[in-house]
Structures are given as C-alpha cells and as structure tokens.
Amino acid sequence: MRWWYSSILFRIGKGRAKCCLKIIHYSMISILVLFAKLFYFLSSCLYLVEAAEKDIVFLLDGSNSTRNVFPAMRDFVEKVVEKLNVGENKDRVSVVQYSEDAEAHFYLKTYITRKDIVDSIRGLRHRGGSPLNTGSALQYVRDNVFTNSSGSRHRQGVPQILILLKGGRSFDNVDTPAFALKQQGIFVIGIGTNSSDSGELQTISYEPNCTLLVSEFTNLQSVQDQLSSLMSTALVRATPMTPTVTESSSWIIQVNLKKPLVTKPKGRDVVFLLDGSNGTRTGFPAMQDFVQRVVERLSVDDNKDRVSVVQYSRDPAVQFYLNTYATKVEILDIVRGLRHKGGRPLNTGAALQYLRDNVFTASAGSRRLEGVPQVLILLSGGRSSDSVDESAAALKQLGVLTFAIGTRSSDSRELQKISHNGDSALSVSDFTDLQQGCGDIVFLLDGSDSTRNGFPAMRDFVENVVEKLNVGESKDRVSVVQYSRDSEVNFYLNTYTTKEDIVDSVKGLRHKGGRPLNTGAALQYVRDNVFTNPAGSRHLQGVPQILILLNGGRSFDNVDTPASVLKQQGIIVIGIGTRSSDSGELRKITQDPNYTLSVSEFTDLPSVQEQLSSLMSTALVRMLCSCWMDLMVLEWDSQLCKTLSKE
After folding, report:
1. Is the pTM value of this prediction over 0.70?
2. Could you tell me whether strands 261-262 and 238-239 are parallel, antiparallel, or unpaired per DSSP bridges?
C-alpha cells in the first residue's frame, strides 16, 4: 500500500508539541493516527530529556522575624538563579515577598535575561510586617503569578515550580490553598528553619520529601544541592497528557500535548540474576537472604511489583518468571527453598542475553511496553568467561536498569560495564557481607547529671555493641558523642580504624555532667559536625548512616526540626530510653516507632542488645534497598524516553 505526503511539520516550542501531517493521498486514516501517536512518543521524550523550560516562583517570608536573615535568603535565590537557563523560551523567574499580605517584586514575564533578574534580586528590600499569612500568600501566587497574564506557561505544559522560604508558623490556614496548588500541577518545594512548623511545611510541599530544613536561613547553602535535585525531579515527573487527535477537511492531523501531570511508575519488574557457579557455593545462603530482604521491601501483593529469579553458571536456569507468582509469601517461600545450581565456567554475557530474550518479555510477565520500570539486580562472584559487552549494551538499549553486586573475586570494570552507570555497581569482600553490610555508626550518649549512676552501664553497652561490629576503614566506622547542655565529641568516625582502639577509648570514657539536657541541639550538632566528610562520614559514597541515642530524660529544648533534618539527610536514628525519658519525644526522634527501645534503667541495657543488633541489620539493608528503589524511580523516566525514541 503506497501513500505520499507533501509535508511534515513537527515543531516543539513553549512546552507544546504540535504535529501537522498534510496529506495529498492517503490509504487509511488509522495510518495517520499511528503517526500522530509516534510523534507523541517522540515529543514526550524530547520534553522530558531536554526539559529546557520551567516557570519558577520564589515565595519569600518577609515578616518581621526574618529581618536579620533576609540577606541570606536573597543570596540563596541569586545562587539558584545563576544556575538556571534563563530566557523567554527557557526558564522564567518570579519573586514574591509576603507577611500579612503578598507583593510581587517581578512576574514571570517581567525579565527575560539572567542579568536583569539577578540585578533585581540584589535590590530586594525586606518587606516586614506581621502576622505571617502563608495560606493567603499561596492563594495569591496561584491567582496572580501562575497565570497566563503574568507569564506562566502552564497551559503549554511547562513545569510550574514554587520554592517557598518560610521562617515561622502561619497565622492562617494553609490546607486549602496548598491543595489548590497541587491540583493545578504546581510542584511546591518548602524550605524552613527551626522556627518553622515542619508538619505545616510538609502539608504545603508537593510531597513530604520535598521539604528541606535548615537550622537558620544563614545555612541555606547546605541544601543547595538537594534543591537542585528536587527541581530535576519536578521536571522528570512533569509528563504530558494523552494527545488529542483531530481531523480537519484539509486532512491535517494535529496533536496537542496539554499541561503536564505529575505521574509515578505503576510499579517495577525486578529480576534477580544469581551467580550459581561452583565459586559461590558457600556464599549462596547469603545471596538468598539478600534477595529475601529486597523482596520484603517490594509491593508485590497489590500487583505493583513483580519478581523473577534466575540462576546461572555455564548456562542460565529460570527459577520463576515475572508472572509466575502474584504474592510476596509465594515468592519468599520459593527463594528460601532455592538450591545452589553449581557448574562452570561462569558465562555472565550469555546469561544477560538470555534475560533480554526470555525474561524481559511480555510472555514472561514483563510490563516494559506499559511503561513499568525494568530492573535487574545481578549478584556475581567472579569474572565472566565470555564477553559481556554486547549483551550489557542490549539490556541498556532495552531500557533495563541494571544494578550489579560483586565480590573481591569479581572484575570491577566488568561490573561497571554491566551496570546502568558507575554508581550502580557495588563491591563487597564476599557475599556474607550482604548480611552485615557496613555503616557509619554514631553513639550519642546522655551525659547529663541525671545519668551519672547509669553511665558505667551505658559505657559497657556501647563496648558490647562495638565488639560485634566489623570495624575497619572500609568496613564499620564508629564515633561517640556525649551531651548535656552542649555536645562534646569523644572521637570521630575517622579517629580509629581498629576495634581494639575504639574499645579502649570507650572504656576510658568519663561522664560529662551538666544540665539542662538539650537533645535538640545535640541532634543538630551531630548532623553538622559528625555526619560530615571531614569527620569521616561516607554518606556521599552511599554508606548507611546510623545514630544510636541513649537518652535518660526529657529534652529541655525542641527536638522536632533537628530530628526532621536528620531524617531528611537519610540518617537512621535508633532511640533507647528509660522510664525517665519522654517516649513520645523518642518516637519523634527515631526513624519510625519500631526504632524506639525502652528499658527501666540503663543497667537493663543488655536486655535490648539483640533487638538493637536486629534493628541495625534491618536498617543497613533497608538503606541499601531504599537507595536503589529511589534511584530506579528517578532514573526510569529519562531511560524510558531514550528507549522509546529508538523504537
């Protein structure tokens, strides 16, 4: 069947993709609709991958309480703008200040060059006034700034981002205007301080993890990278709606991509590829255990996530496909019952190709064509006998996100070739390390006057915990901090590299003494001074960060903001208290209520030793799994677009 067309006009601009096919002779209108859909996919990919346009509004707390820190807020906005790609058809910026009421300094269409915007920001003067009506301000930006007349391009599908800098609790209600902004598809990022209401900020923000906290606005630079990451997330999540296809008398097919919706993947198709060769016989139970722990974190029962397991040595063997089991219980039972395959040599290249051809397929339960992320987790204990280059490239081309875990017997370069990117490859000494993991562990000890009698028991408890750790520069690291009115580091994460040195130092600890008990300040202190690169923290390398708090009383200061900041930074907090502690306060501080342990007195600490070990083990695996799962979601959209553009 032959057909011709005289011209194809495909234009992308101002967030809208418009495709016109002018037909001289045609066979079937369905062919044109097919091409319209094809252009939709291509334009979606360009929209997401290029993501060259966004409308960004800064909403600044200009009330009396922010007068002294306003210069820091102004500098922060300037630095963010410096990194934008400003232009009429690129990024647009607006700044609004508010206290009792709101005032726009300039709108989205006021300036079209970065220089003009920066000059205007440098000239901003603090507004002043009270009370702080954040609800009214949110309604104001919705009705007066995120509008066509003010330069907003929301109707053309350009992502709309609101960055709120707020230093106190709102006098009026924020619920309704916050909901209205979300309903309009506006991605709100809230940045607050110790004086802010963290719950209120989370209500306003698009999601709770879109809330950033600093102790004071003078510390805004510490969240600059996190803000950039959230803004990138906003762009990735803003995907066009289904196209509308219309036919006119002159046979012009028009495809209009409307305003963006915020979407998330439906779930994940996760395939485990396990090295079952002779070399992994002793490590296989640890591999099974690891798979079980990851599966525990998946949402299998509601049909969001699907799982498959394949073992390989000379050739691969499917244990079960993605559509074999529909419940977590069934999958876990099968994983527990797996038997080591055995055999040699190790043909990783052939195994990867096998997955591409036989497991990541619709018949085997893969939902790749429905847009569901495809994830491969490879556990390999040696160098492959065959080449992995072509099969690894084929999986990437298919859009599969591969995470590789190897041992000291593996070829690290080979693992990096196989992985989605260099950060997706992990090495352990042997697979038994997967059961233990490694972590940066900080003990924060209540050294106030009230714990003088219980301090020897606290010291013995810390010593017993350390004795069970796998201490080393590239393994577990330990720090101890004591606090009462203020905090004092006994030693940092990079002070000692052997268990013997740490135990000797712990045995020599002396009770600090003092009052009152400022737990909030102590939490902020460990965040700012201990969980840092100079102090030996490896958080940037993805090593789990764990804080173990031993607390014998109610805090004199507020713990809400510093506790939120620790969680925001991904630090896992385990709280151990006595009957003199405030159990509600401890639950606020810890990662979740299950991470709170109680004893009647510190002399009873041995009774929770096993619970603590279990929590630490769970925390390490959860941290690893959560990082990977988050990465899967964040990476998928752009990977999907690259894949679609090749199909």
Report:
1. no
2. antiparallel
